[in-house]
């Protein structure tokens, strides 16, 4: 979608327009009638279409083509060419969704201004759509592990206030879904939830995207802050916000008002601000890529979202939920999970967290074998797991240790994973690893592994002092 389609029954005119546009660096395609035009659009929708209203000897006239384009490719801006004195028709075309019109005979500058504006508006619109696309995702948040319950407990406490929340946690752990949970349970639930993808917008576009703009030609085009009025604005990955925009956002938070790009009027909006980060913002402040004052304003209530590895117990529940969801949305087979598959999933590493689990489930369902329970062998290939039929590939660090220490390091890691997988429950862990409960306790003690309750969550970790003894 990068060229301009020129539809005119007069060859001289379409070639003239094409020459002008190509001189300006645009690629063009030409069509002399409605069939050719429709075929060109169906092959690949253009970035913009210039359309003559009167098409001699054609099955469809310009207005029909316009209607078809607006029905099937509503994002393609259409600029109408109308004969001199046909203003009513041009106005009718605008009502049908044409972006603008130019009258024949037109002057080149006028043509270029209209085209540039149309392209720019359509780009802004697309950008906003990508930003809002996430809006439709489901916001059912599932889990039953202690770490998850502790998270929900904290979220519940902030739903009723207006306090600014900073969600921190690794990529894909569910920060956005947590933000939606706050929104959905607050008295702003009926108002919009608007996501600003701080990493996805080019720095020089950020202000226009956030604050909107005002131009003589197009009037007011509201930005995301205005679109979120009454609801929640979610700054996803705040650490990626350009420094210049950070200062402007800070001003908005202090003054509770802003000005659109190109405008003079002050705009007031009522917003709740929720932000997320998977980076260490304090380090970003030290590196002077994040403004300290903004950090303090956004970080009023810090809430940390646990990684999937800290809530391994939830893996079967989440996997089953995603299987059901893919069954509903894409008709993928509704399969059960074998015990082996669950055990493997609960011991794998999940750098991409819940998102990675969701992607894995989708892949297994697509590539899968039949409709029976999902087996462990269908899970990621050996190459991805770094093991082969239980053969462990030694990591560099392990390979340099004497056997006794290497075995201890392995046992420590293995048992830590298992205990966390069973939510800190020693009996269930003992049962799974095939040891007596008391023997497991002794083993843990000798390895320096202790379990403790941190904000209501029982987790296993290594007590360095004990381990050193
Ligand atoms: N507790 C949960 N229950 C159900 N689905 C979840 C849960 N947590 C995360 N997900 C799903 O996992 C995916 C990733 O979640 P989300 O986008 O909220 O993560 P994130 O931390 O905001 O990611 P990123 O850091 O990449 O922005 C989404 O599809 C989300 O619906």
TrEMBL record:
<feature type="modified residue" description="4-aspartylphosphate">
    <location>
        <position position="52"/>
    </location>
</feature>
<feature type="domain" description="Response regulatory">
    <location>
        <begin position="3"/>
        <end position="119"/>
    </location>
</feature>
<feature type="domain" description="Sigma-54 factor interaction">
    <location>
        <begin position="141"/>
        <end position="366"/>
    </location>
</feature>
<keyword id="KW-0902">Two-component regulatory system</keyword>
<keyword id="KW-0597">Phosphoprotein</keyword>
<dbReference type="InterPro" id="IPR011006">
    <property type="entry name" value="CheY-like_superfamily"/>
</dbReference>
<dbReference type="GO" id="GO:0000160">
    <property type="term" value="P:phosphorelay signal transduction system"/>
</dbReference>
<dbReference type="InterPro" id="IPR027417">
    <property type="entry name" value="P-loop_NTPase"/>
</dbReference>
<keyword id="KW-0547">Nucleotide-binding</keyword>
<dbReference type="InterPro" id="IPR003593">
    <property type="entry name" value="AAA+_ATPase"/>
</dbReference>
<dbReference type="InterPro" id="IPR002197">
    <property type="entry name" value="HTH_Fis"/>
</dbReference>
<dbReference type="Pfam" id="PF00158">
    <property type="entry name" value="Sigma54_activat"/>
</dbReference>
<dbReference type="Pfam" id="PF02954">
    <property type="entry name" value="HTH_8"/>
</dbReference>
<dbReference type="GO" id="GO:0043565">
    <property type="term" value="F:sequence-specific DNA binding"/>
</dbReference>
<dbReference type="Pfam" id="PF00072">
    <property type="entry name" value="Response_reg"/>
</dbReference>
<keyword id="KW-0010">Activator</keyword>
<dbReference type="GO" id="GO:0006355">
    <property type="term" value="P:regulation of DNA-templated transcription"/>
</dbReference>
<dbReference type="GO" id="GO:0005524">
    <property type="term" value="F:ATP binding"/>
</dbReference>
<keyword id="KW-0805">Transcription regulation</keyword>
<dbReference type="InterPro" id="IPR002078">
    <property type="entry name" value="Sigma_54_int"/>
</dbReference>
<dbReference type="InterPro" id="IPR001789">
    <property type="entry name" value="Sig_transdc_resp-reg_receiver"/>
</dbReference>
<comment type="function">
    <text>Required for activation of most nif operons, which are directly involved in nitrogen fixation.</text>
</comment>
<comment type="subunit">
    <text>Interacts with sigma-54.</text>
</comment>
<dbReference type="InterPro" id="IPR058031">
    <property type="entry name" value="AAA_lid_NorR"/>
</dbReference>
<protein>
    <recommendedName>
        <fullName>Nif-specific regulatory protein</fullName>
    </recommendedName>
</protein>
<dbReference type="InterPro" id="IPR025944">
    <property type="entry name" value="Sigma_54_int_dom_CS"/>
</dbReference>
<keyword id="KW-0067">ATP-binding</keyword>
<keyword id="KW-0804">Transcription</keyword>
<dbReference type="Pfam" id="PF25601">
    <property type="entry name" value="AAA_lid_14"/>
</dbReference>
<dbReference type="InterPro" id="IPR009057">
    <property type="entry name" value="Homeodomain-like_sf"/>
</dbReference>
